[in-house]
């Protein structure tokens, strides 16, 4: 890949220092002063790059690897050529993520769109809004009446912060996002085009057909260290609040309905839809393209496979998949039975054609 000026290399971190900071053991301490500046995949890593391996499947890629270090665990460290230093750890994926954070800090949240700092010309900040020191508001962004924004937060170009919204410190509200009727914690990242706090989908049957809109007067509560992907929508509550728990990460193009309560440290992948008033526990992982019914409870630690349809409560700690979602062992058994029946039908068709 040609030089990537969007994310330039680091000035350099000693390999020994990098090992300490990511919790890895540098096997050959003689190279501790070697500098690393960037991350790269194994097959095209060059001097100055650090990469990682999770399995033997990457073995062939080592033939073209010239990395300054490879992060891996003991089970595959013997595969690494002798000329490439090894950073040994039981959690190579986590260690590599930490290395990337150190070497490419600029990539960890949406970057500035201009070189301007502070309140840029062309931004509109209502006179009644309260901004702490070191807040940035880029051109064409709007901060509404009575809004409060904490120190170190950046409001990017074209973003709209509604009246009375409160945003904590060290947050990034990226270009074109809108945040309405919401209380946002510290160190929250909201990616471009996300829509937070608009009214939810609620209607009652009209007296002469059609539908009458149900008023939505709740809020959205986003706790600390949450990340919300591009073009994701989170509706405000009808009368209670929609809540996103601390440390939860939400991918692009996710729809979260009104009054949904999501616990701490959940992961929700692209294309998921969660209907209103559902309760999601702590540490829940929901695979891409899944749909979750309204007014149900998904317990702590649950894992939902991609493209599943969750229609009823899921007990804590379970792994579910399929449509309707059911325990993974049942889902896999059903899939195997359907495959076997399909194979039998094909055999019968072939047998009939040969008669």
What does the secondary structure layout of this molecule look like, with pairings?
Elements: E1 13-14, H1 15-22, E2 25-26, E3 35-36, E4 38-39, E5 49-52, E6 69-72, H2 74-77, E7 86-88, H3 92-103, E8 124-125, E9 130-131, E10 136-137, E11 142-143, E12 148-149, E13 154-155, E14 160-161, E15 166-167, E16 172-173, E17 178-179, E18 182-184, E19 189-190, E20 195-196, E21 203-205, E22 211-213, E23 220-222, E24 227-228, E25 233-234, E26 242-244, E27 249-250, E28 255-256, E29 261-262, E30 267-268, E31 273-274, E32 279-280, E33 285-286, E34 291-292, E35 297-298, E36 303-304, E37 309-310, E38 319-321, E39 326-327, H4 328-354
Parallel strand pairs: 4-5, 5-6, 6-7, 8-11, 9-12, 10-13, 11-14, 12-15, 13-16, 14-17, 15-18, 16-19, 17-20, 18-23, 19-24, 20-25, 23-26, 24-27, 25-28, 26-29, 27-30, 28-31, 29-32, 30-33, 31-34, 32-35, 33-36, 34-37, 36-38
Antiparallel strand pairs: 1-3, 2-7, 21-22, 38-39
Could you characterize the architecture of this molecule?
The chain has 4 helices and 39 strands. The mean pLDDT is 95. Strand 38 and strand 39 form a beta hairpin. Among the domains are: 96 residues, 3-Layer(aba) Sandwich (Udp-n-acetylmuramoylalanyl-d-glutamate--2,6- Diaminopimelate Ligase, Chain: A, domain 1), CATH 3.40.1390.10; 138 residues, UDP N-Acetylglucosamine Acyltransferase, domain 1. 14% of the residues lie in helices and 25% in strands.
